[in-house]
Amino acid sequence: MILRGAGRGPTGRRPEQAIRRTHRETAEALSHVPFFSALSKRELRHLAEDTDVVTFAAGQDIVEEGMLGETMYLVLAGEAKVQQGGRRLGSIRPGDFFGEVAVLDGSPRSATVTAQTPLTAIRLYRHTLLGLFKAEPGIALKVLDGVVKRVRQLTSALDA
Fold it and tell me: pLDDT tens for residues 52-92?
């Protein structure tokens, strides 16, 4: 995936910067994402091997409405706003994740997410997840279970 604005800016620096994090730390963070909560520690570490940690400057778009869903993010630090058609839908804070549905089906993003403060997130690519599903089909079933749980949570929240 190519993020708009991910090339070199006027300062010659890339707007997003990769930072190092151990696979164990990343696996622990991913274990709190409902989609991945049923995965074993070994499976989470395997998934973590193919993630990276990126930072975004305040005001930088992380994903844009209409872009193909090739990545999902788990926010480690910072805050972002979510907008659809220019209308604010909500905020994203540390521990929140986004892009999970788009990364599963590759559909266009339904909203734009913009960093409000400097933001650090774990980034997982769609091709990584699909490759893992092909290599270990049992993981796909566990993630599907996590998807169902998440849908039930959201449905309950709407009914309340």
Answer: 999 999 999 999 999 998 999 999 999 999 999 989 999 99
Specify if 33 maps to a domain. yes
Report the C-alpha gap between 110 and 112 in whole angstroms: 7
**Burial tier of 135 (Cβ tally within 10 Å: 0-12, 13-18, 19+):** exposed
Residue 65 neighbours by CB distance under 10 Å:
16
- Residue 12: inside a domain: no
Whole-structure pTM value:
0.81
- φ/ψ (deg, to 5) at 39: -75, 145
The residue type found at 27 is A
- 3-class DSSP state for residue 59? coil
DSSP line for 93-104: -TT-EE-HHHHH
Tell me the residue range of the domain where 99 lies: 17-149
